[in-house]
Every structure is written in structure tokens, then in C-alpha cells.
Design a protein that fits this description.
alpha/beta; four-stranded parallel beta sheet; 12 strands; 19% strand
Length: 248
């Protein structure tokens, strides 16, 4: 194993863990489906909490979506959180010929979702891009519905299948591996989301370890289709195991 890819979730517990990994010979990247802030703001927040992290180490759906839109010459109607809009400044949004949805939180009003539906249903070949497909996530105030719920609603209403950009897309994980110059069997994913973090990584050919924090549920350890390669209490413990196995 030559690298560790970590799920950059909304509440970090072990700020020293990335420093310990970087002090070894392991490469480290942070994969997040965060779509409520730009990478710069996301990284600045984590740095204030004591994390050794830079923008170049963070992989999130919005920049990946911008690359796809430009490559295909698409003009999106955006249903995203206001904080992530700057990521799309370089994209032409006039006369939309596709829809991009992210974790829009309070922007997921009936009016806004219906407007996205109308754009899609009015296209000869409707295209829907979803920045991740999570069902829910955990914040300080408790669990919150994620973008996948609204993605499914638009899929059903328009009789289409969305293209997911972000976890658990194999293309998303492969882009991270390409950045490190590694093959899937040389990397390990650590995350709290069994399906999108662990399962997505495993489908790409990587190993996946789940932490018992964040959105973890005890039933995850009896999941019918996804079985983690390991389960640990938290990120710090995962790093302990990794470094001990490597003799650090």
C-alpha cells in the first residue's frame, strides 16, 4: 500500500492523523462530497481546526463537474448551495441544456426542484448530473437529507438515470488514483459512509475501512451487499493500525 485516501467529512476528530500519515512514506488525499462550500473555504475551515491539508490534496465533485461540462460543451441549470456557486463561475449557464444538482440544503424547495424538473423535461435529451448520491449526512444538529434523495426524485419524474460525479463513482476515485500515480490495489480508503466511501472504493479495486463515527450505524456491519475490509472506532485508530503494520 502506497497511499491512504480519507473521507473528508463535516466533523473531524483527529487532526493529528494526517500529519502522522504524511510523516510516513504514504501519500494522502482527501475525498469529499462536500458541495456547500468551495474547496478553498472547506480547506480553510479544516486548517483552522488544526489539520495539515492543502487545496491540491482535496478532491470534491464541483471541480470535477466543471471539467465534464466544459469537455462536453454543456450549459447547466444549477440547483446547488449558494456557497459552491463560485466553483461554476467559468461555466456558461445561459439557455441550459442540462441540470446539475448538489447538496442544496434549504435551496431544495418545491419551487426550485420543480424548476429543475421543468428544465429537464423540456430537453430533447435530458441530462442530469448529481454531485454525489448520498442519502443523508450528519451535522451538529443531527442527520440531514442529502442530494441523492432529490436526485432520485428527478430521475423518477423524468424517467432518466443521473450521472453521478463524486463518491461512489469509480471515475471519481480513479481520478484521485491518477493524481497519485497509483493502481487501486496500492491504496486504502477510510470513511464513515459504508456504501459511498467503502463500497465505492472497493468497486474501483481499492480496500475500504469504515470508521465508527459520523454517519456510521451498527447495522453497517451486517450490510447485505457491502462489507468493509476493516472497521475501527475512529480515524486515529485507523492510522495506528496502518502505521503499525508498516513498522512506523
Amino acid at each position: 500500500m502506497h497511499s491512504v485516501i480519507h473521507h473528508a467529512d463535516k466533523q473531524w476528530e483527529a487532526s493529528k492523523a494526517p500529519k502522522r500519515l504524511k510523516a510516513s512514506d504514504l501519500q494522502l488525499r482527501f475525498c469529499t462530497n462536500e458541495t456547500q462550500a468551495t474547496r478553498e473555504k472547506f480547506v480553510a475551515k479544516l486548517q483552522r481546526l488544526g489539520f495539515d491539508i492543502s487545496v491540491s490534496e482535496v478532491f470534491s465533485p464541483a471541480p470535477a463537474a466543471v471539467a465534464v461540462l466544459k469537455e462536453k460543451g454543456l450549459r447547466p441549470h444549477l440547483l446547488v448551495y449558494d456557497g459552491v456557486l463560485p466553483e461554476f463561475d467559468s461555466v456558461d449557464k445561459t439557455d441550459p441544456n442540462c441540470v446539475v444538482i448538489g447538496d442544496a440544503a434549504e435551496n431544495f424547495s418545491y419551487q426550485n426542484v420543480n424548476e429543475a424538473f421543468r428544465v429537464l423535461i423540456g430537453l430533447e435529451k435530458p441530462l442530469l448530473f448529481s454531485l454525489g448520491q448520498g442519502r443523508y449526512y450528519k451535522e451538529t444538529g443531527g442527520l440531514k437529507l442529502d442530494v441523492g434523495v432529490y436526485m432520485k426524485a428527478l430521475e423518477y419524474a423524468c424517467d432518466l438515470e443521473a450521472e453521478v460525479i463524486g463518491k461512489p463513482s469509480s471515475m471519481f476515485f480513479q481520478s484521485v488514483l491518477n493524481d497519485m500515480g497509483l493502481h487501486p490495489h496500492e491504496a486504502l480508503m477510510i470513511g464513515d459512509d459504508l456504501v459511498n466511501d467503502v463500497g465505492g472504493a472497493q468497486r474501483c479495486g481499492m480496500k475500504g475501512v469504515q470508521v465508527r463515527t459520523g454517519k456510521y450505524r451498527p447495522t453497517d456491519e451486517r450490510h447485505p451487499t457491502v462489507t468493509a475490509d476493516g472497521t475501527v472506532d475512529n480515524l486515529a485508530q485507523a492510522v495506528d493500525v496502518i502505521l503499525n503494520q508498516r513498522g512506523h
